[in-house]
Amino acid sequence: MEILEKLQSGERLNYEDGVKLWDLDLFDLGKFAFAIRKEKNGKNVYFNANRHINPSNLCADTCKFCAFSAHRKNENAYTMSDDEIMRIVDETVARGTKEIHIVSSHNPFVTPQQYLGIFKAIKQKYPLLHIKAMTAAEIDYWRRKWKMSYEETIGLMMQSGVDSMPGGGAEIFDEDVRDKICKGKVSSEQWLRIHSLWHARGRQSNATMLFGHIESRAHRIDHILRIRALQDESLSRANGGGFNAFIPLVYQRENNYLDVKGFLGSVEILKTIAISRILLDNVAHIKAYWATSTLSLALVAQDFGADDLDGTIENESIQSSAGAGSKKGQSKRDFIDMIGTAGFVPVERDSLYNQIEIYE
Question: Which pathway, metabolic or otherwise, does it act in (predicted)?
Fold first, then answer.
């Protein structure tokens, strides 16, 4: 088979090749994906000590797949005060957290100055704490709501202490699918442009893909290859900017408005991760985000190209609102024990994949 010959030779695959990968047996895909993973990252499985904070769930947009967002008349709507956010930061830093991951809704009643102010307050108090914040969808919402250009927002984020960007808002890049699941939110081209601008400033970000809803396998290949193309562009600048990880997010089906009948099995999830590793030759890390796939399957995914589990999280609201069992996070000890039992090397990392401690 021609596709197997290309895989064996290490040839870079195109869109047509990517679509053909789905026809291969899971274990054939796993063999090639694991070889790439081993070349790039050995038998390391990375994780970090992080804390997710979602300042508000009151949202102006209505994405059909989202179970987290609320609207003005919803009794479950909330908006945290600065004091509440700082109390969480103080408590989690005392427990050894190295990263604060702040993603919020598109709340029309919270100004950019309020968000930037809390970033600045956190960084002033804890200058070594990594702040990962502001998805491309949030940056685009500020443009729509507050008439702030992408360049202006990115400059203010950097001035306020934001160190890296999360990958949220990417969903699936195909615009026909986006019209059905998140109409009116950041477009695929806008998402890519925002990350390109961030990379041009020498900064790192993540890239995500939400899969397992109404998209096709071909849509996933298109999405992955657009990430690869932007990474080629970003790495050509040689300024340190680019994607440090790709995160395939498994769609969670509860409490939302997408009428998805089936649900992905483990084979399809593992194939998606393996294909991601094979196609994304220029992205160093593939994350099996345990909050959307369960920790057990995320560990299995390490044999199929993934090399990262994300982190301890401590409190997870977005995926758990849609049925994921991730609300209370995961302990560092559990990560270390389970990774070691699976035959891999547990490596605690910082947000940019610098190794903090290897547990052998």
Answer: Quinol/quinone metabolism; menaquinone biosynthesis
